[in-house]
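Hey, I'm writing a tutorial for new members on how sequence and structure tokens pair up, and I'd like a real worked example in the thread rather than a made-up one. If someone can provide the structure for the chain below, I'll link this post from the tutorial.
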Amino acid sequence: MSEIGIGIIGGGYMGKAHAAAYSAVATLFDTELRPRLEVVCATSKASAERYRHAYGFARGTDNWRDLVDDPKVEAVVIASPQSTHREIALAAFAKGKPVFCEKPLGENLADSIAMNDAAAASGQINMVGFNYIRTPASQYARQLVAEGRIGEVTYFRGEHTEDFLADADLPGNWRTEGMANGCMGDLSPHMINGARALIGPITSLCAQVETVHATRGGVAVTNDDQAQFMCRFENGALGHLFFSRVATGRKMGYAYEIHGTKGQIRFDQEDQNALHLYTMEGPEAERGFRKILAGPAHPDYEPFCLGPGHGTGYQDQIIIEAKDFLTAIATGKNIWPTFAEGLEVNRVVKAALDSSDKNAWVNVADY
């Protein structure tokens, strides 16, 4: 077993999740590389010291360059705002260090292209934090589709809906400023990634993007609250995707339906340990959806629990990400989703925003 020094930039919500994941991953998955929490970076020295003490890092800093330059930091995790991703990633690759970056990859498409180019030129391991597609149930759904269990896929409906800004009386905050923090920048990448993972590349789309509450607390909202688009996948299937941060009653509405010529799959993240499968088998009178509870027979479940139906949670998705990142570093072989996937997701986002402005169908390859 070898140790590897981990540096995490950002100590807030996602920084904490990654710190907890790297503290637990070797115990759960017996990884070849054993992570060592080396440096955490925050926006102030006081915050850095607080996170260092709380999460168990050796050192804290308020300068991300110090973290990247530190020889004891052998892999960099970026969990800071999107506007910082490009500069940090390029600096880490220049130092010859693997990089894990939270989604979205870049603040915009240009950033994502530059980051993917830098990753490719460096030859370093790289990964993007699309955690929801890693639930054991969704991993199993990918297997079922790939195996042809529901036949040829004809239609996909996906959504990522939450209600954290459903109350129009809530004051504006960082989430209501700048397109990168809007619904298309924040929520849509997860389901676009999910659609690509389950069905394949999106070739064309027609989108509508809108701001439901134009002002909050008397301050103008400068990004979108909800969006939808029709699309065509490379394999010929039709699709519809919907994203909203004002979907009243929805807490974690990462959900999808996959229609096939021989069956259908349904999933809802609010019940993340269940997958619903329908197959055209047996007498018609006995056909119907059956609920499959995640268990040790499904990908990445057994390390957490030996009991089917006992379930995994949000933090476990982040631990699975950490396992994949460490495995990629140990083997020297990238594991999906890499920066290339993050770039393609951002390409779809850019195409959707342009489509909405034009009120027209667009080809994703044109972006």
